[in-house]
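quick one before i forget lol
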Amino acid sequence: MLDAVSKSFPGVKALDEVSISVLAGEVHGLIGENGAGKSTLMAVASGALEPDHGTVTINGQIIEADPQGARRAGLAIVRQEPALMPDLTVAENLYLGVSSERRPSSARMRSWARERLAAWSTQITFDVDERVASLVPEHRFIVEIAKALAQEPSILVLDEPTEHLAAEDVTRLFENVRALCAQGKSVVYISHRIREVREISDRVTVLRDGQAQGTHDTHSLTEQEIVDLIVGRAVDTTFPAKAGPTSENPVLELTGFSGPGFDDVTLDVRPGEIIGFAGIDGNGQREALRALAGMTGASDKVQVSGKNVSVRGSTSAVDGGIVYLPGDRHREGIFAELTVRENFSIRSLTKYASAGFVRSSSERSAARSASSEFAVKTPSVETPIGSLSGGNQQKIVLASVLAAAPKVLLVDEPTQGVDIGARMEIYDQLRAVAAAGTAIVLRSSDAHEVAGLCDRVFVFSRGKVEAELSGSDVTETNITRSVLTATSTRDKRSRSAGGVWKWLDKDSAPAYLIAATIIGLAFYASALSPFYATQRNFSSILALVATLALVALGQQVLMMTGSIDLSVGPLMGLTVVIASFYLVDGTSPGLQLWGWIAILGVAVLIGLLNWALVELVGLHPMVATLATYMGIQAVSQTLRPTPGGLISAQITNAISAKVGFVPISVLVVVAIAVALQFALYRTTWGLSLRAVGSRSEAARVIGVRPKLIRLSANLAASGLAGLAAILLMAQIGSGDASSGTNYTLQSIAAVVIGGASIFGGRGSFIGVTVGALLLTQVNAVTSFLNLSDAWQFYLLGGLTIIAVSAYSLSRKRAVAA
């Protein structure tokens, strides 16, 4: 139950005293235009947003702004944009997505995940070990639904649940909804598809401009009455009139057009025409549209206005007059952090620039005119587009695409996630563009939309055009009949990345590659210098590795969250300086104890300071830790302007103890790396660490606390740097303020070479340790071969570029379109 809930954002009152009561055993429809407040209301209900005032009660329990509390009370939500972490596997997303009491042991996570997916369907075609980033949108949405059902909720909220689902999965979803209600549980069903709401819901609440317009028995209202309630006025739900071609000379011609997922498409589009691609998803129509936009490889059998056009890249397609309006607005359509003005002008900046400089007045004026023409509801053109409703975002994307004056406009799912009012406006705009002479090719999973908007329709089945419908034959019934009676066969193709790229995409791959490089380099150095393969040399290398690996492990923990710490090097130097005052011969045991406490305390304080500057003050991690870098270095230089203060040999000897020729410190570091690697994949903390780095907001809404996770990561980074400094002081032997500065860049290099993503969510502690070994070995080899110091940088720079390029390319190959 939601009672008098209100919520405001800058310039917008999203909810105004909204009250809704959901009964046990019912499907409660929630419907309204984009921007009406539906998703905001459900974000409040799920604990993801805190209301300005009003209360949320679930099963008699009042819920504060706490996603975990809402889940424990019995609510699960399937969001319009799945709250999944792309760098985590399907199994890991399902595991983190349920409350702690419903999670199995980490050892059973994969088998449990398979059970949860099998409960949805026994014909799932993806594996639980696949990263979410590699899944197509439909599969990501299935994971989101399976995650919600795994919570076994008493109240299930479905926000636009069928937008990415195939017909058979929509049927399966409705079966699950009815089964839940038969058990006395409740479902809140949010959708722009009025027919779906009328089919599945018992009662419906209409929202308009953040206010509830009443709750009604669903079947007491006609479709038109629901539309009138949504928009507050009578709306003509018919499609704009089809004017037909204004000339017989084609604007676009395809001849035997083929590519991944489709074959032998031959058609033409004349001025004034809109043609449609229809069929069940996955049958080639989307692939053909994206190939025509230059987004995938395809044969160049394309003519625009009688001229051959290359579509082997998106730039060449645009140069040929072909512009694409993407269906996945969030991933490909908008730049959420940029303003409405910037999103509008970014596809046609040359129109508002002189000598490479944007004329801001022209750009702003054009953006305002477009916002007015397309009836975009926004406080101003300087408002971040991410704060607008889906329909208004789609209008800006459409306006931006049309501002480029395309000859051919490719439109993918033009009204996905768009309310009925905005939908009619988009239809009118598309028909007006066609009448002006632009060829429009449209793909939609809604047969009713295709039939109402298009002059001709090409029905795809198994990668081929099964039927062409035109004139009076373009009806929803005929489109559906053509889809259901298709007899074509598909040539077997594979869209997956090759085996090498799949292997490189694994977090363990970098460690193997680095290990092979280390072995090869060792053999090469041994062949040229008899002094390389000696116990003394190996012992020295391992001691240096332990120091670098330890600080790099801390850096890796923080970089897992998408952050970075530039202050670790100066922190190590300050630790050595502190030791040179306290841990010297002649001081009392009590004073030495205070020295150890000071070393530990400084590491903790620096970690807390870096976290506070980022999380509380709002500085970028690089800016914050660069500031602490300079501050720490200044303190160290003040305390020790010149090196001095001999550290007790008794202490340095204990730190440098060995087992044979192997330093004990190396064994300790390896044990720490193994423990962290285990924690990364088998503990809630490790999974949460990766989740925050992969997609922080998605992690937050499923109950992870990003601020606390980043606090633990900052403390780990500074704490491990402090431990590394203890090893460093045994090597230096005296207080030197500059002794640790080189470790900042070296620790970052070890992490990157070890396979981590600088954006967070990906990495391996074993890989980092092996990366530290490679860096140290390169320094040693150049010395043994009498190479200049410059060669250290040549080799390290080259290795870093090669590693980053290989890892980045493999991850791009593995990500689904």
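fyi Residues 68 and 443 are 39 Å apart (CA to CA).
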